[in-house]
Amino acid sequence: MSRTRIPLRPLAWPLALFLAAASTFVVLPAARASVPAGPPVFTNPLNITNTYFPFVAGGVKVYRGKSDGARIVVVDLYTSNTRDFNWGGGPVSTRVLQETEFEDGKIVEISQNYFGLADNGAVYYFGEVVDIYDENGVVVDHEGSWLVGGATLPSDPPGAGNATDPAVYMPGNPEVGDQFKPEDLFPLVDETVTVLSLDETVKTEAGKFKDVLKARETSQLDSGHEIKWWGKGVGVVKTKGDGEKLELIAWIL
Q1: Which of 25, 150, 214, 240 is the most exposed place for a label (fewest CB within 10 A)?
Q2: What's the rounded Cα separation, in Å, for the pair 102 and 186?
Q3: What is the pTM of this model?
Q4: By the 8 A CB rule, do 95 and 115 touch?
């Protein structure tokens, strides 16, 4: 497409040169530093002090809600247990979060989740071991289990997915628009998180939380999505997805 050229007065030449230069070079936006891209370094991985995902051994969080009409209760135990993963040329220690889910009063799932803090302030996810229970309280499956390096302990499910690297679970300083994948082992597990807001106010039975991070979670394994709200110094305070709602009712960290 041709452009009409307009004669410029002498005093306008500096401006003209500036505009010509601006049209010649493309100015790229600054890289987002909030979501780390390079390999993480783990100097003190057990000291998880991330603003939106603090880990205090002995902490407890209790959630209540509904899933497809069923009453659900989820209990998160921030255990003092640790587990080492062989990654990056040496062992990396992680904290163990045990999550137990009940449906209509019966246990349906217990998972052991492994997290470590990198020097960049981000929490990394090293995987989870999932026990799924039938209506009689018997473990019948381990669907969704995955680990960095695969199954290495006798107690690990033999079919656990083998992830090459840990995944970003929560950046050190998240910003609106950030995207990261806490689970990235398709077609076994897959999850993409997009940060929508950092200034939400959320009220649950456990209290009123300000400056809450709001994020959307999607997956290639499901056409739906889930919204999660993360409180500063607390972690997840509320979730809402297709046919499911869950909110924090009691906690101590």
Answers
A1: 25
A2: 27
A3: 0.86
A4: yes
